[in-house]
Amino acid sequence: MTDRRGFITKSISAAGALVLNSSFISLPKEKLTELNIEALKKTPEALASDEDFWSQMKQAYTVSPNIINLNNGGVSPAPKVVQESLARQNTYANEAPSYYMWRIMSQGKEPLRENLAKYAGVSPEEIAINRNATEALNTIIMGMTLKAGDEVILSKYDYPNMLHAWRQREQREGIVLKYVDLKLPSESKNELVKIYADQMTAKTKVVHVTHMINWNGQIMPVKEIADLAHKKNIEVVCDGAHTFAHIDHKISDLNCDYYGTSLHKWLCAPIGSGMLWVKKEHITKIYPLIPNDTPLSDDIRKFENLGTRSFPIEQAIGEALNFQYSIGNERKEARLRYLKDYWAKEAIKMERIRLNTSLKSNFSCALAHVGIAGLEAGEMESKLFGKYKVHTSPTKWEALNGIRIAPHIYTSTRDLDRLLDGLKYLHTL
Ligand SMILES: Cc1ncc(COP(=O)(O)O)c(C=O)c1O
C-alpha cells in the first residue's frame, strides 16, 4: 500500500491521465481536472457513489445511449482509447502485414508481457498472451499428463468450455471427474472449502475452481482451497475469467498453480484477447495445445504458438491496462460493488424476487443473478429487453433460473433505476 501522500500524488496524475486518455467531452479540460482531483481525494468507497465522477467515466466509452447493456460479464466494451489504438494499429498493419506485424509490432510483445505480469503480481516468464480464457484453460486441461483413474475435482457450476475439456479427457483417457455439490449462493468460506476437501483422495491430482462463478457471481475461496490441496500434492487450476481487473487482487494471492483469464471482459481490452499464467516450475511438464518444436521446454512462450493472429488486438491490450491504472483497482471494485448493491438491495424488497447472489463483499462484486418466482429465465430476459431495452443474460443452469445482471463502470444509477422499473413490471406478470 502506498502512503497517503503518495496516494494523492498518484491520484492527481491519474486525474490527468483520465483527462488525457479518455476523451471526456462534456466539460472544459481545466474544469475536469479540478473535478477529478477533488474526486480522487475521496476514499474508493466514498467515490463509488459520486455520480458526477462516474458520468465522466462513461464518456470514455462509446456505448449505446439507447440500450442499457447489463451483460458485461459476457464481453465488455473497450473504451475509446483502446478502440483507437486498435484501429491505428490495424491500419498500420495493413500497410504491409508481414512486415509491420512481425517485424515492428512484435517488438511490443515482451513489454506487454512485462506490463501484464506486473499488474498481475507475477513474473513475466510465467505469462502467455493468447485469445481468451477458453484457450488459456484448455491449454492446461489438455496439456497435463494424467492417466486412467486419476481424479479431478470440479463443479457443475464451472464454465461449460472447461467442463467439456475435462469430460473429453474422461471419455478418451478414463480420468475420473468428481463433482462438488455447491449450494449457491454461499456465505461460508469454511463450508465451501470443506465441500472440496471432502472429495480429495489419494488419487486426486487436480482441483479445478472458478474464482468467480459466472452464473451468479459467487466468489470462491481459491486460496484456502489451494492451501489445502497443496498439502495433499494436488494442483489447482483457477478460472479467473471474471475476477481479473474486477476484484482487486494479484494472481500470486491465490496460491494456485495455473490461471487463465479473458482480457475482453472486465479489463475492457479488445475482443479476442486473453492470458495464461503458469507457475514457473510447472511450465516444462505442460504440453502446449498447439505444439511448437520444443513442447517440453520451460519457456512460457511455447504456449503462444497459435498460428497467425491479430497483433493489433494484442498490442492494444496495453492501452486497456493504462486505462485500468488510471482508474485504480480499488476504485473500480468499489464502484462495481456499489452498482450491484444499488439495484439488488432495492430489488429484494419485492416479494417474488429471489436474489441468488450474496450481498457480502467477500462473496460477490458486480455480477449477480436474480429470479422471480413463477417466471422462467427466457421470459424475464425477453420481456425486460422488449419493454425496457435492458439487455441481460438469461441464466438457467443447475438450480438457477433467472437473469444475470452485470453492470460495468460506465453504468449509471439511472440505468439501474430503469432495471428496477423493469423488475417491478416483471413482478406484475
Ligand atoms: C467463468 C468463465 N470462464 C471462462 C469463460 C470463457 O471466456 P471466453 O469465451 O472469453 O473464452 C467465461 C465466459 O463467459 C466464463 O464466464
Automatic annotation (TrEMBL):
Q: Recall the GO molecular function terms of this protein's record.
A: transaminase activity
Q: Which UniProt keywords apply?
A: Aminotransferase, Pyridoxal phosphate, Transferase
UniProt-listed SUPFAM superfamilies: PLP-dependent transferases (SSF53383)
**InterPro entries the UniProt entry points to:** Aminotrans_V_dom, PyrdxlP-dep_Trfase, PyrdxlP-dep_Trfase_major, PyrdxlP-dep_Trfase_small
Q: Which residues form the Aminotransferase class V domain?
A: 70-362
What is the designated name of this protein?
Aminotransferase class V-fold PLP-dependent enzyme
Species in which this protein is naturally found:
Lacihabitans lacunae
